[in-house]
Specification:
Elements lengths: L1 H6 L3 H8 L4 H15 L3 H26 L1 E5 L4 E9 L3 E8 L1 H24 L19 H11 L3
Antiparallel strand pairs: 1-2, 2-3
Helix pairs in contact: 3-4, 4-5
Length: 154
Amino acid sequence: MGIASVLGVDIEKGTAITAHLNAQLRDNLFRSAAEIAIDNLDHLDELDKLLDEVADASKRRNEYLHYSIYHVPKTGRCFLTKKSARGSVQVTIREITAEEIVRDAERIYIAGLNLMAFYGKAGLDDIDIPECRLDRSHKTRAARKARRKTSTPG
C-alpha cells in the first residue's frame, strides 16, 4: 500500500509493480519514491526509521523460516541452526530460548503495525482500492494466443 501510494498508483497497479520484488528491492523502491512524493522531512525521517525496523525484523523472521530449530529433550534447550553446502559444508548453531522467540515475534508484529500506523499519519493510506475489477481473463497471454489460433484463417 505504501509503495503504491508514493508512486501515485492504485493498489492493483502497485501490486503489479511490487509482487515479485524481494524485500531489499521493495525497501529501495519505497525509500526512493518516498523522497520524491513526500515533502515533509520529519515524515521522511520517521519512514527511514520504520523501514530500518522492518528490515531488522525481517532478518529475524527469515531466520525462523529458513533455519532449523532443534529441541534437545534431555536438556530442554533449543538451538537455531543454519546449514549451507555451497562448495563446503557450513553449520552455524546458536542457542535460542522460548522467550527470545516470543520477543522476536512481537518485534516483527509491532514493526508492521507501526509502519501501517505511519501510512495514516503521512496520508499514505488514501489509495484507490477498487471494489470490483472487470474480468481480464481474456487479456492473459494464453487467452490471446488461443484467440489468435481460432481467428487465423486456415
